[in-house]
Amino acid sequence: MRQREIAERAGVSISTVSRVLNNVSGISSTLQQRVLAAASELGYPISVDRRTSRLQNVALYTYLPAAPSLDPFHGDVLNGVEAECGRQGIHLTYASISKLQLSPEHLIERLRQNPVDGLILMSVDDPELTRQLMAINQQIVMLNVDQRELPLDTFLPDNHYGALLATRHLIANGHRRIAHITWFERRTIQRRYEAYKLALAEADIPYDPGLIIEARINAENAYEALRKRLATQELDFTAVFCANDIAAIGAMRALQEVGLRIPDDVSIVGFDDLATTAFLSPPLTTVRIEREELGALAVRRLIERSNTPNLTPIRVEIAARLVERQSVARAKARRK
Known about the structure:
The chain has helices at residues 3-10, 14-21, 29-41, 72-88, 104-113, 127-136, 159-172, 187-202, 219-232, 245-257, 291-307; strands spanning 57-62, 91-96, 118-122, 140-143, 153-157, 178-182, 212-214, 239-242, 267-269, 286-288, 315-318, 321-323.
């Protein structure tokens, strides 16, 4: 049977029929269903791989307190989710799980009253809540979450290797006193701290807990934490590895305000490669994470799972790469 007959029956072009039957993205779910129904009526054999996805409505939930537009990393990930949902004809809703928007209790009740086809949990570090959601909906993907004990599809950056790249780069430039700005409340960020320690050990550099600067990793808190340290302690490091770019922006301001030059006096490396980092003064050396691709991968896996519910859960850590700019220089002798 020729595709022309299917096209005439469905009232669409032949190219649309071809794209639907070959699972090409960019066709709305309504159009897919019309083409596949026409093909079925005409006796065209539809394989399992060619069936339209049952995924029509997806909800994304996160614990982030601020709007994604105020958080560049998660905003970019959400853009990837939205774009892929648009390509696949999937309706997406978004909400923050917080006292200001949606409490965990209200979330559970909402999903019981208004079920969705799939859930994406972005940076939701609450295993108990996730287990409750699993009892309601088995189509769940975790995004930027590191909870190995949960049997769910997971997509996140390669936090460990990315941090190794960053710290090794500073060590390769002769730095042995490397401060680290981090935050221990998220497992994903802890992985970067662990890699920092491993890189030091590889180079036979003693780990010094006094070089760990703990602060919620945003620009304001990183700035305040480093500014306080510089005001109360002698400069005893030649480089800083920040757990993300936003913290690096705050750290750069703190260093520059006390007259330290980057990278002449102190080198600095971030993590994420946000769009603004190439335009800082100096441009920031950082670790590149493909954030929009991360979001798109989560949506594609939900589609696969909706078609084949018994798939074995997978864990995907997308590759990180070092982006060298002008914020790192060879280490000089430590000041007296």
